[in-house]
Amino acid sequence: MPDDLSLTVLALLTLAGLVAGFVDAVVGGGGLVQLPALLVGLPGATPLQVLATNKLGSVCSTSASSATYLRRVRPDPRTFLPLMATAFAGSIGGALVASHLPRDAFTPIVLVALVLVGGYVLFRPSMGEVTALRFTGRQHVAAAMGTGLVIGFYDGVLGPGTGSFFVISLVGLLGYDFLQASAKAKIANWATNVAALVVFVPQGAVLWQVGLLIGLGNLVGAYVGARTAVRRGTAFVRVFFLLVVGGFVVRLGGEVLGLWG
Hints:
The chain crosses the membrane at residues 31-52, 80-99, 105-123, 160-179, 235-254. The chain contains ten helices and no strands. The protein is mainly α. The longest helix has 26 residues, at 47-72.
């Protein structure tokens, strides 16, 4: 742990981890809270250390929420297992090339994608209310695997909004309701986080004590968030999804316009 971190900074990072865990468990997008907090709280850390430490905290979050969803929602393993497998492989590939790609180029692309996704969900209020699968058999498995590979690669390279992209793909492409999509998205996101750590840990990039501290906050927030989502149902998850996507648009839009770093 960096020597110059005060107890106040550590407490704020833990709180950020708690909020991020709640957001991430419901619909994904906890990085909107956690990554900026780490960048502010660890000014002396390298970008790779911040990214790797964030992944450690996120693994704690996705572990807790995945366990809750598995127990209470019981998502279909015929979908989430191939989704997990290709997401894991994609994330490893993305993490391996992460240091070789200009990350600034991704921000406008992600911003446009989020605006389109948010608008699509906002103006189609019936979308994701019930599960109505668009594919069956091998086509369904192939669509799940393709989703996992593409979004997993993105998570390994960059990361912000991964959970939200998983959710909207499972709702819009495969036809799941928002609650079922969130359950499968969280399991796939757990796989992408573990895969990224497989690459980052041997590089010595993880700040373990800070990561475990925010991970503790993530665990608590994810447990509460997943139980809230299951209890409140699809309508709550849809509204929360729109709020998180809106937050991402403001955050990334301000970055593109130079309003903040």
